[in-house]
Specification:
The chain is an alpha/beta fold. It has two domains: about 160 residues, Rossmann fold (3-Layer(aba) Sandwich), CATH 3.40.50; about 120 residues, Orthogonal Bundle (N-(1-d-carboxylethyl)-l-norvaline Dehydrogenase, domain 2), CATH 1.10.1040.10. It has 13 helices and eight strands. The strands form three sheets. It has a three-stranded parallel β-sheet with strand order 3-4-5. α3 packs across α4, α4 runs parallel beside α5 and α11 packs antiparallel against α12. The longest helix is centred in the middle third of the chain and has 29 residues. Its EC number is 1.1.1.31. One of its GO terms (molecular function) is 3-hydroxyisobutyrate dehydrogenase activity. This is 3-hydroxyisobutyrate dehydrogenase. It holds the Pfam family NAD_binding_11.
Amino acid sequence: MARNLRAKTPDNDEILVYDVNATATQSFLQESQGTRVQAAVSPREVAEMSDTVITVLPEPQHVKSVFEKMLASALPAPPTTTSRLFLDCSTIDPTTSRLVASLVHASTSESSAIFVDAPMSGGVVGARAGSLTFMVGCEPDMLSKVEKVLLLMGKKVWHLGAQGAGLSGKLANNYALAINNIAAAEAMNLGLKWGLDPKTLGNLINSSTGRSWPSEVNNPVPGVVGSAPASRDYEGGFGVSLMKKDLKLAIRAAQEADARLELATKAEEVYEKVEQDYMGKDFSVVYRWLGGKE
């Protein structure tokens, strides 16, 4: 994401970066020599010196903590605009996101700071290629400003509604992804147990009603899709721990909305067990956990 932002940002704009991983920050700075990229010493410095602040963090508590640090005291006016834009691209629960939005608005006048949830889909590959899809929660009159920034890092922006709606859309999508991934692994395992050829079975499913992203793009059987993590020992891709996290967030949000999820508990059990055995692997490793033929 940062590389695409650097490559596509106008020459007269500066990029200020901060990461708890100092090695990653230094590596990015070295790549960026000769460009207008600087390292900040804290999240607060990023906020003070920026018109637009983009955050991407692992868990709800991390987002809350970072914003509390940025907003510990009143921020100065944005450097060149009348309104500072906070874009949070983390995948967290809508309730925490709305809490953070209230912190932003409570610490400033409503017109001088805008908080937008903009979770993304596309994984590591999409982030590198600049092909991410963003799901946005903001007021309609803010959309063009938000799109202008997000399209520096991705290719598609979906406006789902008011603040928090972007995350609701993302969690609904990832709930389906979690279930479809297990179903694809079970279906492929079943077919191979019956003696079917894995590539032929994959092609059949992907030209029929069983087609899904886990079967077509991220097929869990090694060799069926050459670019899928399964074909490189399930390395890279979308980690099973991240899938488990997103599933838990979706379940929590569903409970708050009083939405019935019949498959949630069993799916959560599956990812808990898979994580114990295959921590760090792509979530399609469910197939290996099932005892699938490789």
